[in-house]
Amino acid sequence: MEEALSHRVGPDFRIADVDPTSTPGFEWDKEDWETEFHEHDDELDELQSKLYANARAETPGTGGLLLVLQGMDTAGKGGVVRNVFQAFDPELLEIATFGKPTPEERSHDFLWRIRPHEPAVGQIAIFDRSHYEDVLIQRVHQMAPAEEIERRYGAIVEFERDMANRGIRIIKVMLHISKDFQKENLLERLEDPEKYWKYNPGDLDEREHWVEYMEAYETALRRTSTDSAPWYCIPGDRKKYARMAVKYLVLDALRSMDLEWPEADFDVEAELERARKA
Amino acid sequence: MEEALSHRVGPDFRIADVDPTSTPGFEWDKEDWETEFHEHDDELDELQSKLYANARAETPGTGGLLLVLQGMDTAGKGGVVRNVFQAFDPELLEIATFGKPTPEERSHDFLWRIRPHEPAVGQIAIFDRSHYEDVLIQRVHQMAPAEEIERRYGAIVEFERDMANRGIRIIKVMLHISKDFQKENLLERLEDPEKYWKYNPGDLDEREHWVEYMEAYETALRRTSTDSAPWYCIPGDRKKYARMAVKYLVLDALRSMDLEWPEADFDVEAELERARKA
User: Fold this and answer.
1) Residue-level pLDDT, tens digit, chain A, 278 residues
2) Looking at beta carbons, which residues of chain A come within 8 Å of B93?
3) What count of CB pairs under 8 Å joins A to B?
4) Coil vs helix vs strand at B204
5) Which residues does the UniProt record annotate as the domain Polyphosphate kinase-2-related (chains A, B) (predicted)?
6) How far B217 CA sits from the closest chain A CA (Å)?
7) CA distances from A62 to A120, A122, A261 (A)
8) Is B77 exposed, middle or buried, given 0-12, 13-18 or 19+ CB atoms closer than 10 A?
9) Does A276 sit within 8 Å of B56, measured CB to CB?
């Protein structure tokens, strides 16, 4: 699914050019899509183990991976985490969910609550929402002055560049759904008592700001999509497609690390001899 | 696999009575074992969602779950985490791995580094190793005076009772392998370059203390297996069996919570009306 890479955000990015229902490179409704979805699971598993093994062995140059997930309510962020990362060992994943900031968090710089979750070497980390909320919802509702929002784009680029400089690959994904698809999703939550808990009346209020949100996303993605921390605007109305695409981006990033199993840091023959007698 | 419950540790527990190769209630080598292994995956998924939903809805009486995993090196703790918890949403799991304490951790009471990882209401938490290391390795190597080890059994019982009192179900599992099986596992690591990174020459030194470790485990399990935080000594030589058994214990604990989907805390009809127009 190399087409996933084609969703990369460049300097001329316009969100209106991305059709949320499109599925380039994938027949999202084909019968055996699950086979394709799981095609590289063993490889992903091995890549994760290799990454972790090299961190433990302190192999110079070992990096980490960060996936940032953003999207409007009901865009399917949780489903991506759930389905894409099933291929990995949960013990070796670091998943941070960023909700509404607490009063303490608000009393610090916007990156204060994010920094402790920076992936360590050897780690695969996921941000379900992120520091981008501070240039999205905060811009739409003017919760910070325009100059401060402006400053944040630069601060984000620097923050991510520093992470990249210590070997962290960064993939940023906006799950781009249509306003109609969100409506379907919200109605689904209201029509199924098993989903009431996912529904929040405030979600409907936010819908009224759809256009401003799209503007805020467009600006944020354009201003912060860099070579070391690119954005991908993934069509989100076909959930299977979005999951396939994110999975491919993760696979591609891990492959690009050219990971090998670390060498033994002990005398293998001598240890074999000892072990046979032990 | 209700037989898993039969491994519960009582006051007369003797570790020598548990055959690490036994597999009561399960033909561990049957062809379609995977079907049985995944039989309750949908139920587990739903139970986890219900638990989380009730915590979000602040339903009174909502609890949490803690699984403590202990075992000798190569006992398969990582494999249990990996395989059993694949049925769950990784975003809603809290997995804490307790390695060798840092100097800072050693300068505090032994529970200091554990407490921040107590599961919150709605959470499913796993401890890969735990506070029990402080009455196992520390006892075997006399890293703490005998009176201090003695004090810790009581402190652990109290710590776990407090957790149970705020609704946390606690399952403690010792994956009990034979000394021969450990040898096989260590040799496997030494014979496969992809597994060198898992091998640590210190593991062979620890093997020399096998008998003392079994004594330390027997005492710890007997002294700290309570109604609210029972130990299960699970035969570990057949990995599939151990995974099946742990999975059943988790299922059983979640079922015992009698979870229902929370009620809506908003006017469903009014919201449906709004949503249709939005």
Assistant:
1) 888 999 999 999 999 999 999 999 888 677 888 888 999 999 999 999 999 999 999 999 999 999 999 999 999 999 999 999 999 999 999 999 999 999 999 999 999 999 999 999 999 999 999 999 999 999 999 999 999 999 999 999 999 999 999 999 999 999 999 999 999 999 999 999 999 999 999 999 999 999 999 999 999 999 999 999 999 999 999 999 999 999 999 999 999 999 999 999 999 999 999 999 98
2) 90
3) 114
4) helix
5) 29-258
6) 21
7) 10, 7, 12
8) buried
9) no
Q: In CATH, what class is B2-181+207-277?
A: alpha beta
- Give domain limits for chain B: 2-181+207-277
User: Is residue B29 classed as helix, strand or coil in its secondary structure?
Assistant: coil
ipTM of the complex: 0.91
Q: What is the residue-wise DSSP string for A188-247?
A: HHHH-GGGGGG--THHHHHHTTHHHHHHHHHHHHHHH--SSS-EEEEE-SSHHHHHHHHH
A2-277: which CATH architecture? 3-Layer(aba) Sandwich (3.40)
Q: Which residue of A has its CA nearest to B261?
A: A194
In single-letter form, the type of residue at position A235 comes to: P
Give the chain B residue nearest A46 (alpha carbons): B194
Mutation for testing the B interface, residue in A58, A82, A91, A186 having most B CBs under 10 Å: A91
